[in-house]
## 1
Amino acid sequence: MVNGLRTDRMKLVRKMVMSGVVSGLMASASVLCFPSASMALSELQGSEKVAEQPAASSATPKEPAAKEPATKEPAAKEPAAAPQATSPAAQPNLSNPKETNKITATDTKHAAIEVMYDMNKAPEAVRKMREKLMEAASSGEPEKLRALLSEGAEPTALALGSDNGDPIATIKSVSGDPDGIEVLAIMMDVLNAGFVHVNAGTPDDAYVWPYFAEKPLNTLTLREKVELLRIVTAGDYENMLDAGNYNFFRIGISPDGKWKFFTAGD
C-alpha cells in the first residue's frame, strides 16, 4: 500500500517536473525566436534605408555657382611710346670712323650760324680793330701787334700752346720761322675769311674769324672747302675731320673793338 502511494507521488513529481521543463523550454524558445524576428525586421528596414541613400546620392549634384574672382585684373598698361624715328642723315655711319667723328661736331654748340663776309654787318669798333690787325700782320713785324693787345682785367687771351712770358714772344713761338713771319701770314688769311657773331649779349660775346671755328666741317660746301684749304693743308683738313672740329688759328674781337683772343687748337 505504502509502496503504491510512493509510486504515485513519484509519477506526479516527474510529471510536474517534466511540465515545468517543457514550459521553461517553450519560454526560452519564444525568447530566442521573437527577438531574432524583430532583429530581422529592423535589419530589413535598415537595409531599405541604406538602399535609399545610394539612390539619392546617385543623383547628379548641382555644379556650384562660379565664384567671382577675389581681385580684379589690373587694368592693361598703355604701351610705351615708340622712339621717334631719326633721319638717316642724323645717324652716324659706324663703319666709317671719320664719318662718326664728323657727326660729333654737330652738337648744340654748332647751332645754325650766319656766316658773314660784309664787314658792314659788324660794329664799327670791330671793323677798325680788324683793319689794325691786318696792317700789323702785313708789315712783317710781329712787334707791331703789341700796341693792339688788351691789358688790365681782360687781357688778350693767347692760347697758343706755350707761354714765353712776353705776348709777342709767345706769338712768334708758333711760327715756322724764327722771325714770326709765317704766323703773321696766317693771321692775314684768317682775317680774310668769313666770320660769325657768337655768344651775343654774354661776357663771351665776340666776332670770330674764321667761321670754320663755329661750323661743323662735315657740312662745308665745295666753295667753303676751297676757302678752308687757303688756311690749312689737305692733311690738316683730314686730321680735323678725325678730331671732329676745326683746330687751327682763330681770332676774336669783342663788340667794343678789343682784341679778345688769338688761339689755336681745340
Note: The longest strand covers residues 259-263.
## 2
Amino acid sequence: MAIEMASGTASETATPGARPLEAVLADLERLTEELVAVAGPSALDAADAAGSVVSGLAVRLTAASPRVRAVASRLQTARLAWLPRIEAEGMWAVRGARTFASWLATAENVEVGTAKREVRTATTLCEHLPATLEAAATGRIGPDHLRILVDGGPTSEARREALAGRAVDPEDPASEPVTGEERLLRLAVASKPSPFRRLVQHFARITDPESDDRGYKDAVDREFLELAKTFGGYHVAGFLTDENGLALATALASVMGAPTAADDRTASRRRAAALADVARTVLDNGHTGTGAAVRPHLAVTVSWSELQAMAGTGTGTGTGTGTGTGEPGRPGEPGRSGRPGLPAYFTETGTPVPPSLLRKLACDSEVTRVVFGPDSQVLDVGRAQRTVTGQLRRAVIARDQHCVYPDCDQPPGRCDVHHAERHWADGGETSVRNAALLCRHHHTLVDTGRISMRWGGRPNSEEPIGAREDGMSSTSGWAFTDRHGKPITGYREHTAAA
C-alpha cells in the first residue's frame, strides 16, 4: 500500500509501485457513485415506476448483497487501522479538542459514543489482535467475528498472554507453533458467529478463570437504574448484570409474547409496554407494600369540577360518604370540595394527566373523596370506592377469560376491566353487561382511538370461527368498530369469513 501525504510533497510506500491513497479514494468514490446510480434506491424505484421488468434482477441483487457487505467491512477495518496513527500524530489536538474521540465525532459527524467505540476497537486490534485486524482487512473474517474477538479475547493480562503465546497444535505435533490468536482465527473461519462466541468464551474461561469472578463483582458494582422525569414522560437508563438482565429479559419476553398480525409496533415499543405491564402486575396483585397503609399504585388527583365535566352531573343517590348527589355506585358530591380549574395530575409528580388517559384510568380504579377547606386544609376523606368490584371482576374474567380484542389472548392478570358499551366517564353503569377484559395495550388503543364496542352474546361453540353477518366476533361475543364505523375483525376471523 502507498500512502501519500495530503500536500503531495511526501509519500510513504509500503508496497512498491502502488498508487497513492488519494488516487485510490477518488476511484472508490467514483465507483460508489456508479453503483448507487445503477442499483441504488432511486434507480430501483424508477424501474418500478416505469413498470419495467429487469430479467433476473432479484437474483443479481441477492448475489451482490454479500459482496457489498464484505467490501464495506474490509473498508471499515482498514479505516480502523488508521485511527491509532492519526491519534499518535497529534494534529487533531491543535484546535483544542478535549479528546481524540470528541475530535473524531466532530470531524466525521457521528455521535461521541460511536467515536469512542471505534477508538477502543482500533486500539485493541492494533495493540493486542494484529492478526485479527489483518484477517478482517483481507476479508478472511467478517465484522461479527471481529467484534466477538475484540469483546471476549484480550480482556485480562493472562488472556492477552495466551493470545500472543505460541504453541504447537496438540492435534498436529509436527506443525509449526502458532499463536493463540491465530488458532482462534482458524476457528472463526470455520464457524458461524454464535458457536464462535461460545468458543471464545471457553478460551476466556480456561486462560483466566478468576477473571470471570472479578468481572462479575465489577458488574455488580456497576449496576444502576435511572428513572428520571423528563418532558412528556420518563427517561430510563441503566446497566444490569447478566443474571439480573436475563431475568428482566425473560420476564419481558413472557409478557410480550408473539405480536399479532395487526400489531405494527416496533420491538422497542412492545418491550416498553411489557415493562409497564410487569410493574402493573406487581402492583395490582399486591406482591409488595403489604405493610404500608396504602398498597403502592398510581395515584391521580382530579378536581370535582373536572370529574363532573368528564362524567356529567349525576342524578342518583351516591354511595360515597360525602353529602350531595352522584351517579349510582360513585362517591357522592362533596359540594365545593374540589379545586376548580386545576387539571387532573399524577399525585406523586404533579404531571398533568391527559383527558384520554384519565378516562382510561377511571375505568378500573379506586375513587377516594377528599374535601378541602377554603385554605386548602383537608376537612374530610371518604372511603375508597372501586369503579370495578372484586365480584364483578371475577364474573367478567369467568366470561371473557382473556383480552377480547380481536386476535389477542393476553391473560386476565395483564388486563383491565373496561367499561365497554358506555364509558364510566360518560355515565356508563358498572355492570358485567357493560364490562369487558382488555389488555393494557388494547385498552389504551380503544380509549384513544375512539373505538366502540357492542356486546352481542357469544354464539354456541359449534359455530365456526368467523365474523358473523351482524359483525359480531364469534370468538368473544364483542363487536369492535373504528371511529369511521368500520368493523374491526381479527386475522383468523377475516380469513375464515373470506
Note: Confidence is low (pLDDT under 50) at residues 1-11, 313-340, 459-474, 493-498.
## 3
Amino acid sequence: MPQHRRPMFRGAGPGTDAGHAQGAVRRALRGRQRVAQERTGLMGGSEALSVYAILLGTLAAIAAGLTGSFALMKRITLAGDVISHIALPGIGLAFLFGFNPVLGGATTLLVGTVVIAKLEERTGLTTDAMIGVVFAASLAIGALVTPNQDLAEALFGNLRPVSPLGLTLGLGATALVIGTLWWNRHRMILHLFSSELATTLGINGRRLNLIFMLLFGVTVLLGLQFLGALLASALIMIPPTIGRRLTHRLSHFMAISA
C-alpha cells in the first residue's frame, strides 16, 4: 500500500502557502507606503504637520506678498497664474518616475522663467506675450505626462507633513526671495518708474528683470506643494491687490502685502 509522506517541516501545506502570500502582500504594501513617503520627501507625523507645515506656509505667504507688490507695480500679477502652470510638466514627470514633485516642478519652473526672460530680451515682445507662449506649451506637456491618479494633487496641492529638511530648504528659499528683493528694492522701483533714468545711473535693467523673474518663479514654487499649480498664484495676486486699495504709500503698501 502506498504510504503518505509527512511534510518535512511542520506547518507546510496550503495553510502555510496562504500565510506566506498574506505576508508578502503586507510587505509589498509597507514597501509602497515607504516609497511614496520617500518620493514626496515629506515624511513626518501630525506634530510635524502642525509646526513645520504651518511655519513654512506662513513664510511662503510673506515672500509671496512681497513679490506680488513688485509684480503689481510691473502689472504682471496675472503672470503668477501662468508661471505656476509652467511647473506642471516637472510635477507630472516627478509623479511618473517616482521622485520628489517639488524638485520636478522647480526644474521646469526655473527653466521656463529663464526662457521667458531670454525670449522677451531677444524678440522685443512683452513679458505677457512670452509667458503665454511658454504657458500653452507647458500646460499641454503637463497634461500628457501627469498620471491620472496624481493629476488632482498636481493641480490643487496637498497639505502634507513637512520634514526638517523640507523646512530648511523652504526657509532658505524664503530668505533668498525676501533678502534679494529688499537689497534691490530701490533699483527695481527706479527702473519701474523710469527705465531711462535707471540706465543713465548705471542700473542694468535686463539683469534686474531676470533676477525678478527668477524670484517670481521661486515664490510660486514655495506655494506649489500647499496650493498646487492652479492656486499657487493666489498668494501673489490677492494680498497686493488688497494692500493697494488700503494705502497709497509705497512702504505701507509693501508691508500690508507681506
Note: Residues 44-257 form a domain with the ABC transporter involved in vitamin B12 uptake, BtuC fold (CATH 1.10.3470.10).
